[in-house]
Amino acid sequence: MISVERCDFLIVGGGIAGLSATLEAAKYGRVAILTKSKIGETATTKAQGGIAAAVDSIKDSTQFHFEDTIAAGAGLCDPAAVKILVTEGVDRVRELIKMGAQFDKAETGGGFALSLEGAHKRRRILHAGDATGKEIQRTLGTKIVEEKSAKIYQDTIGIDLLLDTGRCYGIKALDIKSQSLKYFLAPATIITTGGLGQVYLHTTNPEVATGDGIAMAWRAGAEVTDMEFVQFHPTSMVQSAELRDLVAIPQFLISEAVRGEGGVLLNDRGERFMEKYHSALELAPRDIVARAIFQEMRQTGADCVYLSLKQIDPEKIKKRFPVIYKTCLERGLDISKDNIPVAPAAHYFMGGIKTDTDGKTNLPGLYAAGECAALGVHGANRLASNSLLDGLVFGHRAALAATSPLSSSDVHRRNSFPSPSEMERGDHSEHKRGMVGEDDIELQRFKLIIKSAMWNGTGIVRSKESLNRTKKMLEDVASRLDYEPATKEDIELKNLALVARLITQAALDRQESRGAHFRSDFPKIDDLNWQRHLIYSAG
Ligand code: SIN
Q1: Which of 328, 343, 358 is where one domain is finished?
Q2: Active site residue 124
Q3: Which of 3, 321, 324, 346 has most Cβ atoms within 10 angstroms of its Cβ?
Q4: Confidence of residue 412 (pLDDT cuts 50, 70, 90)
Q5: Does 455 reside within a domain?
Q6: Is 384 in the pocket of ligand 1 (CB under 6 A)?
Q7: Would residue 271 count as lying in a domain?
Q8: pTM value?
Q9: Which helix (H) or strand (E) holds 169?
Q10: Residue nearest to atom 8 of ligand 1 (CA)
Q11: Which of 233, 236, 289, 377 for a ligand 1 pocket mutation test, highest count of atoms within 8 Å of Cβ?
Q12: 3-class SS at 31?
């Protein structure tokens, strides 16, 4: 049974970028949002630290925020994109506050309580306790529901983009509950599917982060870029040593804001070690802290280091970090007294579908925004708390670009999409057997091979040798995935296998170390040869 839905703007993904795009697009036409899980199950909802914006015009400025973002990006930021981020970011955040977002207020003076995170020279992180993403998701989601801005299709996963003479006109999707195909037709498709942390054994990302949008865009012929740049968050809570290397445990992030409030890192021997690595100590750029922890773990043979909050007033810990406090307590730790075992985990993807600052890809009709898009706003390493801002600003801009104008040829096209029966005839990818039905254990095994190979070979520290080993394993897996996906799990596995190969190839190609990409065989930055973006496409 195939059904067809038509709209003016098709938004694929329901995190901050998708919701921001929806609110803007709804002013101009009919919007449909697709989410493969429930609407709030996004990386946005999980974001703890906050959203960076220079709202304090006395002690901070957009110029300072610009400079910090450019410095973190290690020579690969696009200054024009960063300028837009930091300036329009302030406007978008103010709109968010007008919509009702409740950010914490300072105890005196009536302004916002702004926190500090790694590589920021000023306090500029607005936060709602340590559940900032949840508050933003609530605010945007409520507005969309109240204003009936979009038709929301939950439990719906994109399979592939629909193309006609190189132009994207929608998506072929699977309704996960009924296992039926749905075609969504729209003159403008905006991909906002977020990141791909699930390609790694250890990740702070939710289960939905399987790189679906990037994989679909790649298969359709879109360009991707900066695929080698994966950010590893330094402090993800470590469960137990036995389990850690056996299965992919959903890890729990300990926000960088904890270090911003005075948390210190100790190695297995109880020594504070960051002074060996960077003068900014625990608030050094994220890649430096992550590699320092990795190095300490290697040297001591331990599977974690420790975050100590003993310097912070216990009452402040409970007030400022209620979610972290409660979650750690549930896992047996009172963080006002006990050190937290932490280790790095895959956290954010700087690469993705190549777009301009209006979210346009190289395929007419296809736009992308947020973590799945790459426009040089984060360069080789994203500054903490710039990700929510990115989604908010560039989701809005992508929608605006997609509306201008709904040209007469688009309107014509809207009425001349293929009919369902034509699509059925043209759909050679028969909805036939997938892997889960055949062998669920086999599917889980392939997933684990991909995740382990990526963690061990394309992880925090890479080399030609480790990358080639991973590449070989991924090729072996890919050769076994010769099936038409029939279920959500099939689709995700194929997408994970694809994005893993793209990341590994780009990491092999970039023969230098820069930002989050560290090659032990090329440990230095090499501006002469490599201060440029690597761009790939299937075509
Ligand atoms: C954190 O709270 O440490 C994560 C914030 C971010 O990734 O920007």
Answers
A1: 343
A2: no
A3: 346
A4: very low
A5: yes
A6: yes
A7: yes
A8: 0.94
A9: strand 167-175
A10: 385
A11: 233
A12: strand
Ligand 1 within 6 A of CB of 257 = yes
Return d(Cα 167, Cα 65) in angstroms, integer.
37
Burial label for 311, CB within 10 Å (0-12, 13-18, 19+), is: exposed
Last residue of a domain, which of 321, 343, 365?
343
Q: State the catalytic residue, choosing from 124, 244, 259, 286.
A: 286
Pocket test for ligand 1, best of 253, 259, 389 (most atoms within 8 A of CB): 253
User: What residue ranges in 176-291 does DSSP mark as E strands?
Assistant: 180-185, 188-191, 224-225, 230-237, 252-253, 264-266
Q: What is the pLDDT of residues 209-262, one digit of tens each?
A: 999 999 999 999 999 999 999 999 999 999 765 555 555 556 899 999 999 999
Ligand 1 lined by 371 (C-beta under 6 Å): no
Asked whether the beta carbons of 192 and 368 are under 8 A apart, the reply is: yes
Report if residue 402 sits inside a domain: no
Residue 385 beta carbon below 6 angstroms from any ligand 1 atom: yes
Which residues partner with 10 through β-bridges? Answer: 32, 189
Bond preceding residue 314 cis, omega within 30 of 0? no
Q: For residue 384, which atom of ligand 1 is closest to its CA?
A: 8
* CATH code for the domain in which residue 470 is found: 1.20.58.100
Ligand 1 mean position, distance from CA 4 (Å): 39
Ligand 1 centre and the CA of 125: distance in Å?
A: 10
Residue 245: phi, psi to the nearest 5? -95, 0
Locate tokens 């909050």: which residue? 309
Lookup: tokens for 520: 């032990």
pLDDT digits (tens, 9 = 90+) for 377-393: 999 999 999 999 999 99
